[in-house]
Amino acid sequence: MRAIIFFTKVPVLRRCKTRLLDFLSPDEALNLQKKLIKENFSVLQSLKFKIFIFHSDDGDVQILKDLTSQNVRFFAQQGVGLGEKMSKAFKEIFALGYDKVLLMGSDIVGLKKEFLENAFLNLDTQDLVLAPSDDGGYSLIGLKKPCDELFKIEFSKDNVCENTVKTALNLGLKCEVLPRLQDIDTKEDIFKFIVKSDVKLLASGEYNANYIYEKDGVKRLFRVKFGSQIEVENPTLYEYNALLALQNCGVVPKVFKYYEKSEFLPYGAFEMEFLEGRALDYKKDLLIASKLLAKVHNAKTQSNSSFLQIQKPFLAMYEECEKMAKAYFEYEKADKKILENLIYFFEKVQNLGLNDEVENSCIINTELNNTNFIINQNSYIIDWEKPVVGECEQDLAHFLAPTTTFFRTDTILQNDEILSFLKEYEKVRKFDIYKFSKYFKFSILRGLSWCAMAKVEYENQRNIGNVKEKIDSYFKDDFILHLKSIFENNCSQTPNLGI
Length: 499
Hints:
Layout: E1 2-8, H1 26-45, E2 50-55, H2 61-67, E3 73-76, H3 81-94, E4 100-105, E5 108-109, H4 113-122, E6 128-132, E7 138-143, H5 160-170, E8 175-177, E9 182-183, H6 187-195, E10 200-204, E11 208-215, E12 218-225, H7 235-245, E13 255-259, E14 269-273, H8 286-297, H9 313-329, H10 336-351, E15 361-364, E16 373-374, E17 380-381, E18 388-391, H11 392-400, H12 402-409, H13 415-426, H14 433-459, H15 468-473, H16 477-485
Helix pairs in contact: 8-13, 9-10, 9-14, 10-14, 11-14
Pfam families: APH (PF01636), DUF2064 (PF09837)
InterPro entries: Aminoglycoside_PTrfase, Kinase-like_dom_sf, Nucleotide-diphossugar_trans, Trfase_1_rSAM/seldom-assoc
Domain Aminoglycoside phosphotransferase: 199-427
């Protein structure tokens, strides 16, 4: 007689799938655990073998019964440690008269009934069958009789499967190692399952991560979101569509496939081209950047209706700055001098006027810095998380403003460098120098407002790595004086970049 032990935990909020909580919320992790239990049990039900469920002793077992069946026998796992618990489960079922027993976990993804049938078939000639998992353990084990020695190894190591095979051979047991099964324990396990390939982290930010994988021998990127700073219903699809719309300009990565939101991917994801190269160097690559931006801003798209339309961009930027700076204005440890400087810049920007409307629209990135550029023989602009339909001058100003260039590279562009960039840009696309100057000043306020907000968040234990010193440097006298010099002339006069 044949039987399958379904070895699982009772799904309990914040106590299941804890290694996924750096990617999923507690509720999302719980729902994923339930999905895996339900799908794997459904595969078991498609077979004619007896099923027994051995569960953890925490939580309400009725949850498991609702996910699986009321008509199978449930046993609380007994023993100390995983090895002893599995050994006791095997003994319990063999004592009922079964002569071939498989034990499998509930974290498996992509399980097929043919796999289980083959495992039982192998037990006709073998004493032990094992299906390895990616972490060095195993997802399934099958026996024809109890064997305590197999479960006395250390289960916290990354060579559990290997050591189990060695123990079996030393005991004189015939052993068959089956094809690998995939468990879902970490976010990387999810991504591997989605793209059907090993993945390696390339870069990760606050809201996104890029993983390298191979498809047909060619490197690609799997881009996945953890959150978003843009208020749209589906931020991942929004970015995917932006790249799709800009494909013809030839300076953004190609996109290949979009993945809908699911229990595995709460924000969705997409596959895109992997581009070799380096980040932009402000001192060497400015003219390259100007040409790339001009091509993007000149891009002809079928429709801009799917993008956010900013009718009053200066008002929108001002309100965004107010929202960010509010955290510091309400901060009980706020520095008086920093408050005074923030008020100065808010007043200066407000006096420039907030109600101008977009006149010559195009798709803009809104978040450009040197890391948005891949420089190689054919250079590109990447990271299109927050594009909108706006004015090219906004992109140019944000990219060149000292509050942008100084943050990552300690660079403050000189006046002749900025003018050289703009002259090169104008060879491909016309722009309004007066409007550029105004956006330049709004971009400065935006950078300072973000830094003010980040100072508060850092004090409240938000992990922002090693940027605290950089943020503090934005409010030092020499940098503030430099920024104030940029506001000496009004936009209605000859544009002054203050450099």
